[in-house]
Amino acid sequence: PSGLLLDSGVTLNEAWIGVAAIRLADAGDCASDATIDLPNHYVINLLTGQSYPPLPSFKRLEGAYCSFAFGFAVVPDLPAEAPALLANNSFLIKGLRSDGVPFLLTAPLEDVLSLAAESGQFELLAPRTDLIVGFELNTWFASGLLDTVLGLLDLNLDLLSNPALVTEFLDGVEGSVTLFEDLDHDGLLDPEEMTPLARP
Questions:
Q1: For a Cys staple, 4 with which of 12, 42, 120, 181, CB 3.0–4.6 Å?
Q2: Mind listing the pLDDT tens digit for each residue in 22-70?
Q3: What is the chain written as a DSSP string?
């Protein structure tokens, strides 16, 4: 496959993450620990939007919420659809640097990412609610992250063995996430659904 060409010139051929502990926090009790709505582990292919197993719809009553959170997680039992290299990692990114050098980036990072409501709270009005967590992949490598490792013909980066890259990579990842509501339940982010519910 030709992959996804980013604005930085980086081409992504694979982009997988493991996530867990997905939760919504009620606006009236935002200071307390939120109930975990979806406790299972999920593997997500960011280039196709597919989740393994499929992410279920939220079946909560209508209400107001102040935040949405999830954790990047090492998935203990990978589904058959996931690449083997994701084992013991929460991130797996493969592609080509802007100069054509192939790279493989893996990391077992398990940070929790909380997205705060844009205006203090957001309301979910339908009995069934589908949410879309959007990742702006251009921000992951916008700062020339991969160009800081020079002189190699093939980059195989374990982020924990390259601690100088960890903070920069995480900043790009965390700044890329936005929560939207999938109003027509089709699994796609349509133009009329582009109003953000929550951001980091």
A1: 12
A2: 888 888 888 766 677 788 999 999 999 999 999 887 766 688 999 999 9
A3: ---EE-TTS-EEEEEEEEEEEEEEEEGGGTTSPPPEEE-S-EEEETTTTEEESPPPPB-PPSEEEEEEEEEE---SS--TTS-GGGTT-SEEEEEE-TTS-EEEEEE----EEEEEETTS-EEE-SSSB-EEEEE-GGGGSTT-GGGGS-S-SSEEEEGGG-HHHHHHHHHHHHTTEEEEE-TT-SSS--GGG-S-SEE-
Q: What domain range includes position 63?
A: 4-199
Q: What is the Cα–Cα distance from 102 to 80, expressed in whole angstroms?
A: 25
Tens of pLDDT, residue by residue over 121-177, are 998 887 777 889 999 998 888 767 676 654 444 456 566 666 777 777 788 888 899
pLDDT for residue 103: 83
CA 112 from centroid of its chain's CA atoms: 11
Check whether the bond before 53 is cis (ω within 30° of 0). Answer: yes
Total domains present in the chain: 1
Q: Is pLDDT above 90 for 16?
A: yes
Per-residue pLDDT, 167: 73
Q: Chain-centre distance of CA 128, in angstroms?
A: 23
CA atoms within 13 A on the CB side of 183: 10
